[in-house]
């Protein structure tokens, strides 16, 4: 019997009262940290250039960019016409508006009167006249789609509620394709909307009936095709509609085959196909755009080099890949065999392409960062092979990257597998076990936790805290096999890998058990609950954000959002007794026991549609009842979703709350 099942009744006043009481208890318990929270928030604010301007991106006759303004929570989407002879992106040193600026969408104006605000779709038609955008004011990822005429500033009467992320325009901008979801919040229908008509007249273009699959829709960079892609966790299928004939029937590229994943990109006379058919780490092929059929190989499969994406430009292809735990970019000039990889200087980093909307360009924009290098935007010339830094995220207050150092270490898992760990700390941090540390992990969905720069993290590092990321199995850092060895009936490798990394940090002298806090969110929150059960003695504290801690009960209920689509990740306990027994043996809520747990902070959101709020609420309640000697806190955002507070200042306050709790556990409050 689940004695806390009643907490799932979101509309019950008793549930809301319970969550508010938990918030009050958490606030009272952490009241002594109020001044530290304020200090941490102020440090982030002082280091951040609040009035700023992104590097403008050219599309057609305009430069597009986002501005932020001091004191305002949300970005302002803008554009400015390209001037005669202008080839360099314009900028202003102080982040002020560009001369001749046109405001397309002001998030602050849209958010007025709402506790939460998020954009789902922001999509400008090929001719630059129409803007399709969608808004969410609750955090439940249920968006209302609207269309704005940028030539007049008028928002049309066209309005569609309950849409999903993603949209695509026809070539002439007369037609907009968008997505809606089923009762389990699975995007399953593509609709066609004619501008200036009522939503009631919209037509279903494609409907996905298999509940394992979700769909997406987009316009190719070449603006020649609308692409409808259907994906399950292990299988995919693509259809196309000529963008010049939006009422045409979707044509299939290759019928789905169980276990075969592929994505497509249009390039001239061909479709590029990135696939795993007989290629565990994927290979790149192509087929005719006029009559898709057999696939011809462009880049053959190389075990250990995971191909993750391909971007097509008129005269070049750029392949995003992963090798030896690091991201990379490979360039294929069209009509030449002179393929090359772009080199980057640091031993640990993350690199990837930005949006790059222009098909005919010979220059691509990329994003680069590391633990010690702030987010940097570069333009890379594919012909001359030269790179120009357009902007590095300003870090105010005298930040010097030389004052910090990053390292790569390796732990040995229980089965002998070497697991990479990335670390960052202040330069000269002692490696004698005296330093406090935070170890972060995720380990699901082949998602890789590549190094990222964080201004709020500097406040921890400057207080002597080491920050470590455990690149555990279930993620994708070391290729597809790394993922396969941390899912389904091998899921426990994710948890034992993390514990091995934590114990290695202690053994290697980076920290000590009583100076180590674990942190993770969502599926990483499942990880937090599992390792708290598995090795409660390994940590001084655990932070679990929007944690998937009642995994078995959720996966047993196909009516819940996303459950059926998740069966290929976790297994289907409804039909397979072995899966049921395996999940029951590790899911955190089911395995709470009367042991001495570390202090635990769970953070959730009432309107989260991905991991429902009642999972951490039930978990904390059971911890208190079963192992009452520990400190177990629950903090619920009453007006937010899976990503937490939406405004940047609110997000900083949330991070300051968590960071203050961590520092308190580490004796650095």
From TrEMBL:
InterPro entries: AB_hydrolase_fold, Pept_S9A_N, Peptidase_S9_cat, Peptidase_S9A, Serine_Peptidase_S9A. GO terms for biological process: proteolysis. Residues 2-392 form the Peptidase S9A N-terminal domain. Keywords: Hydrolase, Protease, Serine protease. Gene3D superfamilies: alpha/beta hydrolase, Prolyl oligopeptidase, N-terminal domain. Pfam families: Peptidase_S9, Peptidase_S9_N. It comes from the Bacteria. One of its GO terms (molecular function) is serine-type endopeptidase activity. Coiled coil: none annotated. Belongs to the peptidase S9A family. PANTHER family: PROLYL ENDOPEPTIDASE-LIKE, PROTEASE FAMILY S9A OLIGOPEPTIDASE. This is Oligopeptidase B. It comes from Phytohabitans houttuyneae.
